[in-house]
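Please, structure for the following, as tokens.
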Amino acid sequence: MLQNPETRRSLALVVALAAGISLSACSSPEPAPTPGISSTAPSSSSAPEPSASPTNTQSSAPTSNVTQQTTAALTIFYVAVDDQGKSGPKIGCGDSLVATESAPETFTNQVEASLKMLLNDKSSEHGQSGLVNALAASDLRFIDSTISGDEVAVDLSGSVSSGGTCDDPRIIEQLKYTAKVAAGVGSARILVDGIDIEKILSQK
């Protein structure tokens, strides 16, 4: 059936409007951003990076408390009488302290091992060396040693026997030097039954 031009234009408009409505219904609008939430990625400075090497807050144990079995020569000090400091540190009545080395010994506490060797030596003289052991007549036993900072404190027990004014510094320095070299420190304090050895000898 033939339609006049006006009728055809009306039908075309209806079809176009219907198609527009259908397309509008099928297309989904972009969602509106949610208030309060940023779509920008957070910057790297918003949180600290984990440390690759965290600080260790645990303090290491003092080396003086660590005991490890070792085999080595021990350094023992004897006296060169009237040497005037030529062979070692000058002490007392113009004598010298001379360091000697033992054969290799196995020990866990070098201070204990060195002092026991010195105290157990009951020879007053050492052959052709001319070295004197001022501690030969004393009856002393090693009890304990403690290292604090640059000082070693040594506790002994027993009795000290001195031959006189010149023997006093010989006894004291033999003990002190042997102890501090074994401990690797700069000074030593010697106690006999809890009393400083210098005080004991000053009363004799």
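The first strand starts at residue 70 and ends at 72. Residues 5-26 form the longest helix (22 residues).
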